[in-house]
Batch of 2 targets.
Target 1
Amino acid sequence: MKYAEITGWGKCLPPAELTNDELATFVETSDEWITSRTGIKSRRISHVNTAELAAMAAKRAMAAAGVSAEDVDLIAVATSCPDTLIPNTASKVQQILGADNAAAFDINSACTGFLYALQNATAQVRIGAIKRAIVIGAERMSWFLNWSRRETCVLFGDGAGAVLIEATDQPLGLIEAKLGCDSKARDILEVRGFGTDMDRYENPPSALDINFMGQDIFKRAVRAMGQGAQTVVEQANLSIEDVDLLVPHQANLRIIAALQKQFKLSDEQVMVNIDKYGNTSAATVPIALCEAVESGRVKPGANIMTAAFGAGLTWGAGYIKWGERVTPITQSHEELPATDKTAKELLATAIEHCLKTSENS
């Protein structure tokens, strides 16, 4: 039987940082208000598009695996923030990487997207259809935000994370996964005024906005992620005591704490970086996984549990068996194009528009 080992990992965080204190200069909020409710202290604002973030994370993952672009068979990009609806973002990533032999597709399952994409790519490896795939979670959530609404604009950030998976005879990589969707409540988390449901002849088009019913989302996220993780543990014939590290979706520190309490895990067993980046949607899990490896929290042979919950309402959990290598074979020294603008400067037009629209409504 074939398996799909994770042999490369990489992340891309744009350099412009927007702190809570900076947010408070144009939104009625404070560092204490945001931190106490979410655990978020800062987030990144991108000066490049989603494909460029995704491609940079992919380059770093390929370097870590020692794999060249022409040897990649598939590029799967999980994103809710495509650069274009037609063609897909994955084709742009393929173009940037020069991975001419790779198939390329996008998947939109919101914050659960990376897990959906990883399971799909893993399945293709395991049936022998492909040998290598790059799986990417990449988001530019700042583009969607209404910067006059503190209940949502404080939550999200931009970034990308990626893994490279390769066929192996050893039982490594994503061993078990459980995916699902609670569509009856899909309206409690949505981007309004976008897609073919919108009136294309409205002039001017309505501002994009995120409908976010926080308390309901919290309860459903904890329940779905917890049940998914428990199911995966049982499918893998493991117990919670066998889990070395939980890498959860980074949506809210309270959700992560609830999962930690449910499974009786120590702080050392739970990867948390929401304080630095906020919720980067489909990118949170691969970014957190990458940082866990980089910081030495992933040991050879580790049992890793991951879980996520997103709009739709999609949810999922997975059990990853790590291999022996926890250091990159090589490193990519490429960087994003430089910018001399601060996060507030990058957002200046959006902030002005949102505040003006809010005053006139």
Target 2
Amino acid sequence: MLTLGPRTHIQLSIEDDEQADRVMTLLDALGYEVERAPHFDSRQARLQLRVDAIVEKDSLTPREAEVLGLFVHGGLLNIEIAKELGVELSTVKWHMHNIFTKTDTKNREALLRAVIGDWF
């Protein structure tokens, strides 16, 4: 039997997402605070860290962060982002305009360069 104290930190490495979700659900049901950390050696995880940094630094709204993530991770065009989010194309264009303004970029290429920086 494993008894965990109030400040016990356990780190598990589970590569299978389905298994990791099951373990997290079980620990959560037992009352433990569960946090899933990304694999920092993956490009996607490093890219997400860069997106998160831009979101925080430039005070993007949650929806702007979602739009930025779909653009950066998926390379989606505005119309594809609109379909993914179930919103009008004009709404996505407005979010992109706000993202360009807040990040002091003028277009998608400049935005991507701002996110990626020297990481890749």
